[in-house]
Specification:
The complex is a heterodimer. By secondary structure, chain A is mainly α. Helix content of chain A is about 65%, strand content about 0%. About 15% of the residues of chain A have low confidence. In chain B, about 80% of the residues lie in helices and about 0% in strands. Classes of the chains: A mainly alpha, B mainly alpha. At the A-B interface, strand 1, helix 1, helix 2, helix 3 and helix 4 of A face helix 1, strand 1, helix 3, helix 4 and helix 5 of B. Strand 1 of chain A pairs antiparallel with strand 1 of chain B, so a sheet runs across the interface.
Chain lengths: ~160, ~110
């Protein structure tokens, strides 16, 4: 790793950004002294390692990166790999929820299948046709048979 | 007057380390200065000069606990920014919450026997 100074980085900062840093740093130091006086050195000492610099710098770094991208004609907003990351995050949440609800789905699916099979067997035994209504995609409506068989009645139970 | 001195000295030291972090490259090296003991430099200096070594030693012991919390919050913010692409402001806000949780958790676990 070659360490070097990039002096042009100083030009990216506006004067008010330095004021914000100065203010945040000074405020943290003054508050640390106040906490130490009020609650003693044990509690006050904890704040000696407060992440003052990072908090003051991280948000400004984001702003500078965005401005640098916009200056190069790139869209400053998050896109590309970042949006891919968000998609991956959503995908993982989906996998997580699927994993959590899989036992419920299996049990519920088995129950519904058994119900359909038994009712279908009875209907076939009676010489009547069965089918699935494809225009009603949400359960339990997608299990409704063409002639209304299997649709929920007023009490909520399947016909 | 003491608080004004603290404010000015703290502001200068924090700004100096932040500037150093800005101009140094690569960023992986410059990030080290984000954990510089800027607040500690001013506070411990004032404590040593006005209240003596015993007081500063107690503060230093607590600072070690705060440093562990700083490491934890830095790890958290790194994971939030790289893995979850969280906005920087939200990530830093969450890291501060984590810092408070870890530092006071450790303080009551280790120092309040």
């Amino acid at each position: 790793m070659i360490v070097r100074f990039k002096w042009s980085a100083l030009k990216q900062s506006k004067w008010y950004e330095h004021v914000i840093r100065f203010g945040l740093g000074g405020l943290t130091t003054a508050l640390t002294g106040a906490v130490a006086q009020r609650y003693g050195p044990t509690t006050g000492g904890l704040f000696l390692a407060f992440p003052a610099i990072f908090c003051a710098s991280a948000t400004l770094i984001e702003k500078h990166e965005r401005e640098r991208k916009e200056a190069k004609g790139l869209q400053g907003a998050r896109r590309g790999p970042a949006s891919g990351g968000a998609g991956r995050c959503r995908g993982r949440m989906g996998q997580f929820s699927a994993r959590c609800f899989r036992p419920v789905r299996v049990v519920a699916g088995a129950g519904i299948l058994r119900r359909i099979t038994l009712r279908g067997r009875d209907r076939l035994a009676n010489g009547r046709s069965i089918g699935v209504d494809v225009e009603a995609p949400i359960a339990p409506d997608w299990l409704v048979f063409r002639d209304g068989f299997g649709s929920p009645d007023s009490t909520g139970s399947l016909k | 007057l003491e608080y004004i001195i603290r404010f000015l000295a703290g502001g200068i030291v924090v700004s100096a380390f932040a500037l150093l972090g800005d101009i140094l490259r690569p960023k992986s090296f410059a990030g080290l200065f984000g954990a510089a003991p800027s607040v500690a430099l001013v506070t411990l200096s004032l404590a040593l000069s006005t209240l003596g070594g015993q007081y500063a030693a107690v503060q230093g012991r607590s600072m070690a606990i705060g440093s562990a919390a700083l490491a934890a919050s830095s790890f958290l913010v790194c994971q939030l920014l790289i893995r979850f692409r969280t906005p920087k402001l939200a990530a830093t806000a969450l890291s501060v919450v984590a810092w408070f949780a870890v530092t006071f958790g450790l303080r009551y676990a280790l120092l309040d026997w």
